[in-house]
Structures are given as structure tokens and as C-alpha cells.
Amino acid sequence: MHYALPTPVDADETDAVDEQTPRVDALVQAMGWDVSPDSPHRRALAASLMDPSRLGVDYGTGDLVPYAELAAGAAKLDVDRLEELDDSEDRLKLAEHAAVVVLLLEPVLAVLRRLAQENETRRRAVWARATDEAGLGRPRATGPESA
């Protein structure tokens, strides 16, 4: 099912995607993942890394590992849930659940991440304001140069 999903690889940018392949290979190795060298997800990740790279933001293995660890946790949860439904008498139910997890839950996870980012940003802003008000933050500049 995974291999049938569309990937963000633009056929016109094959060389650019190929430039990112070593970065993907290093991440897969660092994570100890058993992923086929022919997996379309390797190319999809390489393609996804092209845009930040064009902006001069190159995510190396060390930058990607924490995100990969979060993804590994979500994948474990996905497969654990599939195993709970693994009833050899009802393989259709298992296939349906796999489709829900793979196709329909992915956008939910992206939006959950955005909600969590909004929460974290607002939480930190409140903390920063409280710290500043208590005089525990950065020293405030005074005088004409601070205007």
C-alpha cells in the first residue's frame, strides 16, 4: 500500500533528488532502519529535502534524527494497532484499518503537529512575558539607543 502512494518527486528534478540521496541513506543507517534501497520513500524524503536545501537550510543527519525518532514512535503505534486487529479470519478489516492509518490519518497527524507547535509557541511567549515582567529576562536597554 505504501509503495502505491504518490510521492513528491518531480521527474524534471531527478539530479537534484539524487544529490539528497546520501543524506537519506545516512539517516536510514543512523536510525538502524530496515528499508529497501528501492523504497519510493527514500526518493520522497530526498525530494522533500530539496526545498529547504534551495533556501540554504540543509538538514543533516543530526538534525533529522530527532524527527525520525518521533516518526518511528508513530509508526510503532500504527503497527501495534494493526497487530491488535490482526485476525486471520477478518483480513478485510485489517486492510481497511491499514488504509485508514496510511491514507486518512496522515493529514490528521500533520494538523496535530501544527496545533502542538501553536501551543508550544504560545506557551513559550507567555513564559517569556512573565520572565520579562519579573525582571528575570534579558536586561532591557535604556537611553536613546534603545528607541
Structure, briefly:
The chain is 69% helix and 0% strand. The protein has helices spanning 14-31, 40-54, 61-85, 91-133.
Description of the molecule:
The protein has 147 residues and is mainly alpha-helical. 69% of the residues lie in helices and 0% in strands. The protein is built from four helices and no strands. The chain has helices at residues 14-31, 40-54, 61-85, 91-133. Helix 1 crosses helix 2 and helix 1 (14-31) packs across helix 3 (61-85). The longest helix is centred in the C-terminal third of the chain and has 43 residues, at 91-133. The model is unreliable at 139-147 (pLDDT under 50).
Topology readout:
Layout: H1 14-31, H2 40-54, H3 61-85, H4 91-133
